[in-house]
Design goal:
Length: 410
């Protein structure tokens, strides 16, 4: 009997140790919020690091974690790669998906879009237009090249939107100069479910978006919310049909307001960062006709996406002005300015446990108390360049730089 009870204890703690997953770049709930923790608040290149590995090729996507697997995308020797590691950083497999296309911008690569998983399959998307469904043994279940089948990429810079999952489909948003659309493919077969045009006649480059949609439920209906081309639009997840739109977020018709930061939702309020980080617009999704609640200026970013949970949002500007606001009113509850640096913040902030983690492009991660805004620590990884969002699972933090993957914590 003792052996049986002991076995149950071992099984319980083994299950608990692998219970936390990170299925998409914005975390388990698409809102920039991780588990309760606790998580490390201090580390350096040679302290509080569980392991570090050199990654093949180059990539800027955020890893995902499911069970014992860490999955990320990269490009090497002209090929798109999906790489799977175990929790110790040891490579389990790698899978090739088409010919890579190099990045144009210094921050970018051929693998900017982050993978996403439903626990059964992994979906990966590359700048080349290659989209694939991969199983957890590295076998490609299906793949296609969206640009070859539906039209060339006309973005001025590097494709960055990530796939999202609905109940039945994997959905890609293509927002560019020329034909723009949403594409839904059956998750298990890759067959086309629907294609919905999204041409909103935005001015030069403002029509282009690198943001990632959010999947949510409104009035018991699964919906896809899309930010880009000067509008927020909502679409029926089953058919792609546009349900409503709110805008314009560009009332003066500015030509170069392409959007990068993605929308975030909490308590029925959608937050839409826009105008290259100058404006943050709140939209009430619970209203009979979704309408703008409020707009505030100069607290959000061109690139990082806000955290949103429990009627609070935490945002950073690209230069490190961190603000917590009340989502219902837009009023500031605290504000902290991080140290100045020539490099900006491209990774999105994450709330994990009692702290907000903000990783700057030079590999420095600032830890801020979520209740007070006080800076708790600054942690530096030398000779690093980081644009991927950090990942929080099982008391450890995964930080991807351009060359390496760090696992922080003992």
């Amino acid at each position: 009997m003792k052996h049986f009870i002991g076995l149950l204890v071992v099984l319980f703690f083994s299950a608990a140790a692998s219970a936390e997953n990170w299925p998409s770049w914005r975390g388990p709930d698409q809102n920039g919020v991780g588990p309760k923790g606790p998580f490390p608040t201090t580390w350096s290149a040679d302290s509080n690091i569980a392991w570090k590995i050199k990654l093949p090729g180059s990539g800027s996507s955020t890893p995902v974690v499911w069970d014992k697997n860490i999955v990320l995308t990269t490009t090497e020797n002209g090929v798109n790669l999906t790489l799977c590691l175990d929790r110790s950083g040891k490579e389990k497999w790698r899978s090739e998906t088409g010919k890579a296309e190099a990045g144009k911008h210094k921050k970018a690569s051929g693998s900017n879009s982050s993978p996403i998983t439903d626990g059964k399959h992994i979906y990966v998307y590359f700048k080349s237009g290659d989209l694939a469904c991969v199983d957890f043994n590295g076998k490609i279940v299906w793949q296609l090249n969206i640009q070859e089948k539906y039209g060339a990429d006309t973005l001025w810079w590097d494709l960055g939107t990530s796939p999202v999952l609905t109940k039945n489909y994997v959905v890609i948003a293509v927002m560019q100069t020329g034909p723009s659309y949403l594409l839904a493919l059956d998750k298990t077969t890759g067959t086309l479910a629907w294609q919905q045009e999204r041409n909103l006649d935005a001015p030069l480059e403002a029509a282009q978006s690198y943001s990632t949609p959010v999947v949510t439920t409104i009035n018991n209906k699964e919906c896809i919310i899309v930010l880009g081309a000067d509008f927020v639009t909502a679409h029926d997840a089953k058919s792609g049909k546009e349900l409503w739109r709110v805008g314009t977020l560009n009332p003066n018709g500015e030509k170069y307001w392409r959007s990068i930061a993605s929308p975030a939702i909490s308590n029925g309020i959608l937050l839409a960062p826009y105008a290259r980080g100058k404006t943050l617009t709140a939209i009430d999704l619970n209203a009979a006709t979704p309408t703008v609640c409020w707009t505030v200026d100069n607290i959000c970013a061109d690139v990082p996406t806000p955290i949103a949970i429990n009627n609070k949002a935490i945002l950073t500007t690209d230069r490190g002005l961190v603000t917590q606001i009340d989502i219902k009113t837009g009023k500031t509850t605290w504000q902290t300015e991080l140290e100045k640096n020539r490099l900006a913040f491209s990774a999105s902030p994450i709330l994990a446990g009692a702290h907000v983690y903000l990783t700057r492009e030079d590999g420095a991660t600032f830890v801020v108390n979520a209740d007070t805004g006080k800076v708790v620590a600054k942690n530096v990884l030398p000779e690093a360049f980081a644009v991927a969002t950090p990942v929080f699972v099982d008391g450890k933090i995964l930080i991807r730089t351009s060359q390496e993957l760090y696992c922080v914590g003992k």
